[in-house]
Specification:
Radius of gyration: 16 Å
Helix content: over 70%
Structural class: mainly alpha
CATH class: Mainly Alpha
CATH topology: Four Helix Bundle (Hemerythrin (Met), subunit A)
Number of strands: 0
Distance between the termini: 38 Å
Oligomer: single chain
Largest sheet: none
Number of helices: 4
Shape: elongated
CATH architecture: Up-down Bundle
Order of helices and strands: HHHH
Bound molecules: fe (ii) ion
Length: 141
């Protein structure tokens, strides 16, 4: 079973954000499958790290696109939303470093299967939904 159901991701009013969220969830599910497989000895650690890097790279790009849209629209709470993105990227990097150093799959599993999806849905419903609404208003949509 997937960690995030791609059909159940909350939708916002900007299509590019929905596309990024779908790709984020797809990469998170792939990482989750690799972690599960690695825990039973079926998937090598390199695959887990490779997928973790793919998720991190996409997260950076996805956040960058949202930040660009916020700057263009002069979104007043930009620093709050940007600060949250920076915090999440730092945390993601720290989890990757920790896993590389310790191989702690139980901790990685709880991050990937619990912490990230819980954050993801709450973030879309709050900061992303508000951002999309504001950017659309500024664009006259
Ligand atoms: Fe965001």
């Amino acid at each position: 079973m997937s960690i995030v159901d791609l059909e159940a991701i909350p939708q916002v009013t900007l299509p590019f954000m929905n596309e990024d969220h779908r790709e984020e969830a797809r990469l998170l599910n792939e990482l989750g499958d690799a972690v599960k497989g690695h825990r039973t000895g079926k998937v090598p650690v390199e695959t887990v790290l490779h997928r973790f890097e793919a998720l991190f790279a996409h997260t950076q790009e996805h956040f960058g696109r949202e930040e660009e849209a916020m700057r263009q629209a002069n979104f007043p709470p930009y620093p709050v939303h940007k600060g949250e993105h920076d915090r999440v990227l730092e945390e993601m990097e720290a989890e990757e470093v920790h896993f590389r150093e310790t191989g702690d799959t139980a901790r990685l599993w709880s991050y990937v299967a619990e912490a990230v999806p819980a954050w993801f849905v709450a973030h879309i419903q709050s900061m992303d939904a508000m951002t999309a609404g504001f950017v659309n208003m500024r664009r006259g949509g």
